[in-house]
């Protein structure tokens, strides 16, 4: 799929439905529902999930962040259990997928902890995206193969080190290499500082790849804190124009 995924801040319940509808009507193929964006996105509330599901209507692309706390991506047994419970909750509230990432103390994919959560999600008919914890991994080539083997649907990456402050434009060569390696076995979601000017540089390179990719944007689509439908539509149109080239 080549389209736009919109990250939605789920904390403002009064305006959440409005934001989700703006993303849907603007043509977004997916939303990523996150709470507490000041911590780079945590698990949203049950009420937020319900509001978002209603507002995204019948579009099969409501993804829910499953992240119990900010900070690193190494989780205790109690935190893993909370993630498990959140996956059940997301399914109950009509989510189509979940977004998560688990690393071990060596900053590698924690396959042993991740596998049962992925299996649970699949049992509940949820797709799984591995979030930008991927960009904290020292060996992304190995990590990508591990995620593919686990049956994960998508991986979100900027192609630049997590916490570096750099975005996808600076990581374009890495992203291109990841697409080549993935060879259509997993969808690459390109995120990190995505706005229209960045797209002008990213898309001509990405559209030459036959593999599955999409783009992920958050702050560039906000107008006074609210998702702007016209800006979403403009970014969607740019993605679609490039995909037809």
Helix and strand layout, with pairings?
Elements (H helix, E strand, L loop, with lengths): L3 E6 L3 H13 L4 E5 L11 H11 L5 E4 L11 H16 L4 E4 L10 H13 L3 E4 L9 H11 L3 E4 L14 H11 L4 E5 L4 H11 L6 E5 L4 E2 L2 E2 L1 H15 L2
Parallel strand pairs: 1-2, 1-8, 2-3, 3-4, 4-5, 5-6, 6-7, 7-8
Antiparallel strand pairs: 9-10
Helix pairs in contact: 1-2, 1-8, 3-4, 7-8
Number of strands: 10
User: Distance N terminus to C terminus?
Assistant: 15 Å
Question: What is the C-alpha radius of gyration, as a whole number of Å?
Answer: 17 Å
Fraction of residues in helices? 40-55%
Largest sheet: 8 strands, parallel, barrel
Mean pLDDT: 94
Q: Number of helix segments?
A: 8
Beta-strand proportion:
15-25%
Helix vs. strand class: alpha/beta
Unreliable segments (pLDDT under 50, ≥5 consecutive)? none
* Strand order within the widest beta sheet: 1-2-3-4-5-6-7-8
Shape field: globular
List SSEs in N-to-C order: EHEHEHEHEHEHEHEEEH
Key structural traits:
alpha/beta, eight-stranded parallel β-barrel, two-stranded antiparallel ribbon, 8 helices
